[in-house]
């Protein structure tokens, strides 16, 4: 709530509310920040159309929505499946409670460089390759965890996994909204987020295999989730970095591919 008070309203929303002067001021402020001249043309709001959730599954959006749903589901299932049970798994392997807490703290700290690297890469190399790259590293790290035979190797593999998956989350949050046209952008994000929540509900049951002696099965499943998610992210075939976003469901930019 407090953070929201410091966020400016978008020019588009201001135009929709009839606050044209404030919309112009918002555009001018963005131009100043980017060291560019404000646009000279009149600000016009694109025509509004009635959209429904079903619009996400029509035409060109159907394939994109389904692929994104698989990406979000796979990442969420693997991430929560591993990290919701990892402390208990380490405790069951004989690690004392203090060491478990220290390890958990190190895994949390490992997420920071993963997030920071994702923030840099999405602007340097693009959204799509960044998402795919982090998911691929996550799949490899899950297998490295399986092959680890010493506490040091377990810690290194789990830290790499933690950094990779948070990098995947960060880049996915940047990539996903830009794949939906403006009228259904929030609906699209809501749908794939809901799919991720469903995966997070299922993941503790799947992750319980870590504690029942089926470590190989569990980690293989999670690695497969990350690999499939990476393949689906690549199959979307769209790079949005530095490109105008589609404004309507009929916008030809929906067909833009790399």
Automatic annotation (TrEMBL):
Membrane-crossing residue ranges in chain numbering: 66-87, 99-122, 129-148, 154-176, 188-211, 217-236
Q: Which organism is it from?
A: Deinococcus xinjiangensis
Q: Is Transmembrane helix found in the keyword set?
A: yes
**Principal subcellular localisation of the protein:** membrane
How does this protein lie in the membrane? Answer: Multi-pass membrane protein
Query: Do you know which SUPFAM superfamilies this protein is assigned to?
Result: MFS general substrate transporter
Q: Where is the Major facilitator superfamily (MFS) profile domain?
A: 1-241
**Entry's Pfam families?**
Sugar_tr
Protein name (record): Niacin/nicotinamide transporter NaiP
Q: Which Gene3D superfamilies match?
A: MFS general substrate transporter like domains (1.20.1250.20)
Question: Which InterPro entries does this entry report, sorted A to Z?
Answer: MFS_dom, MFS_sugar_transport-like, MFS_trans_sf, Sugar_transporter_CS
Q: Which UniProt keywords apply?
A: Membrane, Transmembrane, Transmembrane helix, Transport
């Amino acid at each position: 709530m407090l953070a929201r008070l410091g966020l400016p309203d978008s020019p588009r929303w201001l135009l929709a509310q009839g606050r044209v002067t404030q919309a112009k001021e918002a555009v001018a402020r963005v131009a100043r920040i980017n060291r560019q001249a404000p646009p000279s043309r009149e600000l016009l709001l694109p025509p509004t159309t009635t959209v429904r959730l079903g619009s996400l599954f029509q035409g060109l959006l159907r394939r994109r929505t389904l692929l994104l749903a698989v990406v979000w589901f796979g990442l969420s299932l693997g991430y929560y499946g591993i990290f919701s049970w990892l402390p208990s798994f380490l405790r069951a392997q004989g690690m004392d409670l203090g060491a478990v807490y220290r390890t958990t703290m190190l895994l949390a700290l490992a997420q920071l460089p993963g997030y920071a690297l994702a923030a840099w890469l999405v602007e340097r190399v693009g959204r799509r390759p960044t998402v795919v790259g982090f998911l691929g590293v996550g799949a490899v790290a899950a297998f490295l965890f399986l092959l680890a035979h010493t506490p040091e190797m377990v810690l290194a593999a789990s830290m790499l996994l933690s950094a990779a998956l948070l990098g995947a989350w960060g880049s996915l949050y940047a990539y996903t909204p830009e794949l939906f046209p403006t009228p259904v952008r929030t609906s699209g994000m809501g749908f794939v987020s809901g799919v991720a929540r469903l995966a997070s509900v299922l993941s503790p049951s799947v992750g319980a295999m870590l504690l029942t002696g089926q470590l190989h099965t569990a980690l293989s499943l999670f690695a497969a989730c990350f690999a499939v998610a990476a393949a689906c992210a690549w199959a979307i075939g769209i790079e949005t970095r530095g490109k105008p976003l589609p404004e309507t469901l009929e916008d030809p930019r929906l067909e833009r591919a790399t």
